[in-house]
Amino acid sequence: MAAAQGRFSDGADGTDSAKENSVPLPFRRAVEGLKKARLRPGVEIDPTKPPQRLAPYAYALEAAVVDGEDDLADGRLILLHDPAGHDAWHGTFRLVTLVRAELEPEMAADPLLPEVCWSWLTGALQARGLAYGEASGTVTMASSHYFGGLAERRPATQIEIRASWTPREGVGGVPDTSAHLSAWCELICQIAGLPPVGPTDTATGVVSLPQRRGPHHP
To answer: Which among 170, 17, 185 has a CA at the least distance from the CA of 8?
Structure first.
């Protein structure tokens, strides 16, 4: 994935120093942390257009776990920032995610799977020693059965995780977004059916995020 220049204002290609400098420094540093994350092989990740109404500042990434020509799982991670703070967040930053994958029949039959999937997220954060709060979310399973001209297809089950949490801020009011992104990639890999790895096992999969788009600032 080749790097390209981006801007902090409207997501168009190019640069705009004045508008970029108007973005709060903690948010700019948090975004830079995302771009420096060390990711395990098999994860393809790119910036994407962030939502515009969830917070004054937002930056979004989309990712897929790939195996040859197959996408095993996909998802989106959004970094939100409100310099004034947010009562529901109990902080100035918030991470929001959506992760989806199609399950193998034996996994779909496990009645404890929703609890297990949620533990993959919290476990990945805790394994990296990350402090966070106000975690919430849903785990949804949806089954499809085929009839008529599609009857030859086997039933399919898709699982979807929606979650959000407040990363605790460190030096300069900046959370360790690099480590949070690595933890999130561990979640998406586990839901794709890949074995878990430790926080130090990603050194062979260093990815420099392309910069086609920058943080959104209305």
So the answer is: 17
| C-beta neighbour count of 176 within 10 angstroms | 21
Could you give phi then psi for residue 31, rounded to 5 degrees? -65, -40
Q: What percent of the chain has pLDDT over 70?
A: 78
pTM given for the model:
0.78
Six-digit token pair at 74?
Answer: 């996909």
Predicted confidence (pLDDT) per residue in 75-109, tens digit = 999 999 999 988 889 999 999 999 998 877 666 66
Query: Rounded CA gap, 158 and 103, in Å?
Result: 6
Q: What is the mean pLDDT of residues 51-57?
A: 89
With b for 16 or more beta-carbon neighbours within 10 A and e for fewer, the 19-56 pattern comes to ebeebbebbbebbebbbebbbbebbebebbebeeebbb
Asked if 117 and 98 count as a contact pair (C-beta separation under 8 A), the reply is: no
Spatial separation of the C-alpha atoms in residues 177 and 207, rounded to whole Å: 15
Q: What is the pLDDT of residues 108-124, one digit of tens each?
A: 667 788 898 899 999 99
Q: What is the distance of C-alpha 131 from the center of its chain?
A: 17
Matching residue, tokens 């991670």: 77
Per the model's pLDDT, the better-predicted residue between 62 and 11 turns out to be 62
From its phi and psi, is residue 189 left (phi > 0), alpha (psi between -120 and 50) or beta?
alpha
Q: For residue 36, what are its two tokens?
A: 């420096």
Number of residues that this document lists for the chain: 218
> What distance lies between CA 183 and its chain's CA centroid?
9
